[in-house]
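User: New here, any thoughts?
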Amino acid sequence: MLVVGDGPTGVLVLSGSSGRVEEDRCRVLAGAGATAASYRWFGDEIDRVPLESFDDALLTLHERCERLVVLGTSRGAEAALLLGAIHPEIDGVVAVSPSDVVWAALSPDRPQRSSWSRSGEPLPFVPYDDSWTPDADPPEYVEMYEHALERYADRVPAARIPVERIAGEVLLVAGGDDRLWPSIDFAEAVVRRREAAGLAATLVSHPEAGHRVLLPGEEVPPPSRLVHGGTPEADAELGRRVWPHLQRLISG
């Protein structure tokens, strides 16, 4: 596991489905005073990943830091929200381009399985519709996720991440032009459910930003085969908007 910095707030940084170790983001967060850690948190596929598999990383940070924050992007944000719901010692969850439901595993195998498990049991999930076909090349998968939510509406309630159980602070970051999945809708759903439970959540957004958010000081990410939406300028502006919130979380 990569660990950078020696500040009093430990930040576990989880990538999305790229699986990369977030070296650049850790560097930026350490520069702001955090102890930032990242590692490749899944194997070949995001398929029934045990939530217990994050315990060692969380414990490592908690043993050396006064406060604990989990920052995840995309599928990593799914993990961050789930971890916040089961670990009361987590002081803050930062969900960048999040989902508010558990999705099926990113695997070609059938029948479909959950992305996550706990205590050996798979979590309820929303499946994909294998009959869906994109109408653009390269495809914009946001339409696939929107279609799945409609097609399997009966599966959605059980698959919702229990954000009402998160004891720590919740910070959501989403672009209005996310073309990978509808993260702004997901983030707004988290806010509504937290508010209905008498709990706070902060949503920072930009209407022209996409799936990938660029924090101040981060390098522009390499090209991807996926359509993320947004523009480099809007993605960077969203990063600037959220940065004061991150600094406050890090400073405690």
Q: What stands out?
A: Residues 50 and 117 are 5 Å apart (CA to CA).
